[in-house]
Amino acid sequence: MKVVTTQQMREADRQTIAGGTSGDVLMSRAGTKVVEFLESEFAPLERQRVVIFCGAGNNGGDGLVVGRLLKTRVASVQIVRVTDAPGPVDREATIVIDALLGTGAREPLAGRYAELIATINGEFPRAKVVAVDIPSAMQVRSDFTVTFAAPKAEMLLDPRAGNAGKLIVADIGIPAEYLQSDLELSEPHDFAPLFQPRKRDANKGDYGHVLVVGGAPGKTGSVAMSGLAALRIGAGLVTVACADSSRLVPELMTQSLDAISLDRMTVLAIGPGLGLNRELVSKLTGGAKIPTVIDADGLNSIAGTDFRGRGVETVLTPHPGEMGRLLGLNAAVKPDARLPTAQQFATDRNVCLVLKGFRTLIAFPDGKVWINPTGSPALAKGGTGDVLTGLIAGLIAQAAEQVPPEIGLAVRAAVWLHGRAGELAAEELTEHCVLATDLLTYLPRAIREIL
Hints:
Layout: E1 2-3, H1 6-18, H2 23-41, E2 49-54, H3 58-70, E3 76-81, E4 95-99, H4 111-122, E5 128-132, E6 144-148, H5 154-157, E7 166-170, E8 183-185, E9 209-213, H6 220-232, E10 237-242, E11 253-256, E12 267-270, H7 278-287, E13 292-294, H8 297-302, E14 311-316, H9 320-326, H10 338-349, E15 351-355, E16 361-363, E17 369-371, H11 384-399, H12 407-429, H13 438-450
Parallel strand pairs: 2-3, 2-4, 4-5, 5-6, 6-7, 8-17, 9-10, 9-12, 10-11, 12-13, 13-14, 14-15
Antiparallel strand pairs: 1-8, 15-16, 16-17
Helix pairs in contact: 2-3, 6-11, 11-12, 12-13
């Protein structure tokens, strides 16, 4: 699904209007779509008490349309305009509509707008809040956001993106070709082709062989988790090269770090628990002709070099600190720089870059960037990145066997599943108690949601 910036949305609106659809028609359609959502989510509408907060711009115009359409269909409706003098509001409302500010809002806010946002957030104990197009200034805490044509970048990437609540994308007649953007949102149904029933006469050789390299002394748990994750996601065979194989599950084969062989391997994953080893990483990445995933100390071992990949077959998975080191910086990449940094690095270095964090970004060498919507603070724990490395490698091992290879799709699917498994685990275990290996317990449930 396309994700657009404010400027891109304005341009799409302009082209639509220039093509013969008036702004009034677009506003009417927007209001109608909001009401359709209210009918489906809050039936029966005739029992609902509604307060609509309307700004002075187009967003407020959408709110006025909603008010007009609801006038005879709800128990009560109150419209509060930003230009009205302060007065009482129906604090027993069951639905509050935020139509104060659209995508053109600028901060800091003051005066009447700030007052009304505070009112929405704090004075309706019984109400669900529905934002029109985007939560005002990303400050209104919405339960739902009905956005138009495409999700807006800030409602996904802003640190306050959680304020958007559940996102509903409504079609108001803006042609898809006017939504020009290299930014997209991963959706679970994208990945269904990767999880179709296996043929009845399948064998382990049909699903790839992953080699995970890492696990220096004292850190073999890292590769153990990566290898197990690759198996759990469906790779046919997994071999781990590490210093000590005693912590590995019996299903994993082993190699010595001193005698690594890529013979018959279909995917290489380098880095979990490896320790800084520039010579080994350079040798492996220079000689490998198979898809390669580089994580953790593998990334630290190429930091400061002019490393270039082989397109989507080279997957780098840094967190913001590792990303900073790859760029030669002494600090982590800042949140507001994540998107341009990921996009530029992926194109300059000819790699697929998985920049981890809130709303993990998957950037491809062609300039396209996908936003991953899943994840949980439960993932802020040692080992979860090692699990992600294994999931990516395991899915690539299977996708690489397809014609054409679906490597980019496999990377996006692994990131989505990793985040969703974290969400599911946190629901039952709490965000505090989730362990990295718990993700593999909840992985099957996440896969079933894709199907």
